Amino acid sequence: MGRKIMIVGANFGDKGSQAKLYVVIDELRKRFSDCEIFYAHNDEQLDGSLYRFGKIPFTKKTQSQVLKANPLSNITKLFRKKDDSSSGEKDVVEMVSQMELIIDVSEHSLTSDSSMADIEYYLNNIKIAKKYKIPMIIMPQSFGPFDFDVDTMYILGDMKDILFYPKAIFTREQYGYDEMMGYFGLDNLRQANDMLLVDNNFDLSNVCSRFYRPEIPDIPEENNVAVIPNAAYFDKKNNDQTFEMYKMMFEALNAAGKNVYIVCQCSSDMDICKELASKYMQLGNVDLVDKELDSVEFTRFLKKFEMVISSRYEACVQSYRNFLPVLLLGSGANFKELTELLGQEKYYFDVLSEQCNKYDVVDALNDLIKNWDVARTRVQTRMINIRTTSCFEIFDELKW
User: Fold this and answer.
1) Span 307-363, pLDDT tens digits
2) Residue 178: helix, strand or coil by DSSP?
3) 80, 158, 166, 204: which has the fewest C-beta neighbours closer than 10 Å?
4) Which stretches of 235-387 are assigned E, i.e. beta strand?
């Protein structure tokens, strides 16, 4: 068998995260056809018959025990679930120690906005790689800010001590690059666009078995707009205002003769999707896609739309890859720099900013409806001009 590779940082609950896992596996198999790939997951229940990769249950408890284990001993036994691995009951410590590469595909873990437990889990994966002398690559993701308080500032020392180890750390935004370089002065820091922006002629057979059959919802062929909310922006402080903003957008789309489909990208958003649909379905043009799509289904389903309204970053990225204009309702440097890259700045709103108001959002939506062809052409031109080199070239540097 070929080289053993473990991928950390993904989760199937978020279809953008799942898509990144799939793309990395595809790129690896195109280069190393006989490699063995393992997805380190947080105790997710997955149907092993559908996938062409192994699975390692890698909870915080398991990770901690792997980190504490003596690499030279075989005393600590951590058995995998019988239905979770084709290799049966095998020592997780031994499995991890045999890996020849660890790849992190996280979204945005190293920031003072994350919990300390999540930050420590992230750093522990690097510590495991260093302990067992396994090369590690951190794929493009967001970093910072690092505004830790007095009680949590110690974590900056832990970061500085371990972030030098990966072969490469890719930052997705200039903001993240500046934050990482300013705090840690890393020699292994590189910058690259989001991996899903690159059209890599994805080969599904590199990831899924012949038993997998994507199921794409059937909708009319024209005048469709996808709405992809993020439950995080429906907090108690902004809840009423946010719902009112969506109502006004739905009314504007109705006046323009558009069919609206509320789509869930992340499992944690489904309740908000259902609530939006129940509140505004009486408008006549609003419908809910109540099936939770996987990443392949989600990507293919996007092709049925003219434009997208999204508060999920990876949904914006995948829309742009399909040359779809997007009204972005998010917050953070990742959204801002993505719109600048694609020339779509006027269609981005920081929904957590006090300067954001529903009337400006609806005006931008009406402008996008009116000038849809201009926005689409600009997206298409910028996408074509994005440099063909990508973060995946790091795999060629392994010289396997």
Assistant:
1) 999 999 999 999 999 999 999 999 999 999 999 999 999 999 999 998 999 999 999
2) helix
3) 204
4) 259-262, 286-288, 307-310, 326-330, 348-350
**Angstrom distance (rounded) from CA 400 to CA 385:** 31
The per-residue pLDDT for 81 is 46
The answer to whether the predicted template modeling score (pTM) of the entire model surpasses 0.90 is yes
| Location of structure tokens 């790689």 | 129
**pLDDT class for 154, splitting at 50, 70, 90?**
very high
Residue 353 CA: distances (Å) to CA of 196, 243, 273, 357: 27, 16, 23, 9
Query: For residues 309 and 329, is the Cβ–Cβ distance under 8 A?
Result: yes
Distance CA 253, CA 53 (A): 42
DSSP letters spanning 199-227: -----GGGTB-TT----PPP--SSSEEEE
Whole-angstrom CA distances from 95 to 43, 98, 133, 299 are 17, 5, 14, 33
Q: What is the CA radius of gyration of the chain?
A: 22
For 105-167, the DSSP string reads --SS-SSTTS-HHHHHHHHHHHHHHHHTT--EEEEEE--------TTTTHHHHHHHHHTT-SS
Decide if 167 contacts 186 (C-beta within 8 A).
no
Distance of alpha carbon 261 from alpha carbon 280, whole angstroms:
12
Q: Over the stretch 187-208, which tens digit does the pLDDT of each residue have?
A: 999 999 999 998 878 999 999 9
Contact between 39 and 54 under an 8 Å Cβ cutoff? The reply is yes
Beta bridge partners of 227: 262, 309
206-251 residue pLDDT tens: 999 999 999 999 999 999 999 999 999 998 777 889 999 999 999 9
Say what the pLDDT of residue 1 is.
66
Q: Would you give the DSSP letter of residue 232?
A: G
How far, in Å, CA of 32 to CA of 206, rounded? Answer: 11
Give the residue ranges of DSSP H helices in 322-389.
Answer: 333-342, 358-370, 372-385
Mean pLDDT in residue range 97-115: 97
